[in-house]
Design goal:
Blueprint: E1 2-8, H1 13-24, E2 29-35, H2 38-46, E3 51-54, H3 56-62, E4 68-72, H4 80-83, H5 87-95, E5 99-103, H6 120-136
Parallel strand pairs: 1-2, 1-4, 2-3, 4-5
Helix pairs in contact: 1-2, 1-6, 3-5
């Protein structure tokens, strides 16, 4: 069984969709959802996360013991997500030995050059495919 950490902020829409899609797949996993705020955490729990927590310390602690971390690219950029990502959060995720699947969301002055604009649904599906590839390698 693979241990997945999903990190999201603001309303938690990306994290919730990830939880729903992963739980609906045949991937044997445990999903821990950590929101930068309680609204994001609640959304991911409603999406099917196995457990959830909120805030900087939860990101720091949970990043240490998972196989894969998934979230918008902003989770590794301090002050992104309208300031919700702290230096401690971005550093903990970046330093984690876990594989990171970062969804290229061009918002909050972080623009990923060379990435074709896709719908959120397409990005989530591509993320799921990469997760399958990680498990089967």
């Amino acid at each position: 069984m693979i241990n997945i950490l999903i990190v999201d902020g603001q309303g938690g829409r990306i994290g919730k969709l990830l939880c729903e899609k992963i739980k609906a797949s045949d991937i044997p996993c445990k999903i821990t959802a950590v929101g930068t705020n309680s609204i994001a955490t609640t959304a991911m729990l409603k999406g099917g996360a196995d457990e959830g927590a909120t805030g900087e310390n939860s990101v720091i602690v949970c990043s240490k013991n998972v196989d894969v971390i998934i979230g918008p690219v902003g989770i590794v950029i301090t002050d992104s997500l309208l300031g919700e990502i702290t230096e401690g959060m971005s550093s903990a995720i970046a330093r984690s030995k876990a594989k990171k699947l970062l969804i290229p969301v061009n918002k909050c002055n972080n623009i990923i050059i060379g990435i074709k604009e896709k719908s959120l649904s397409e990005l989530i599906d591509k993320t799921l495919q990469e997760l399958y590839n990680l498990i089967n390698d």
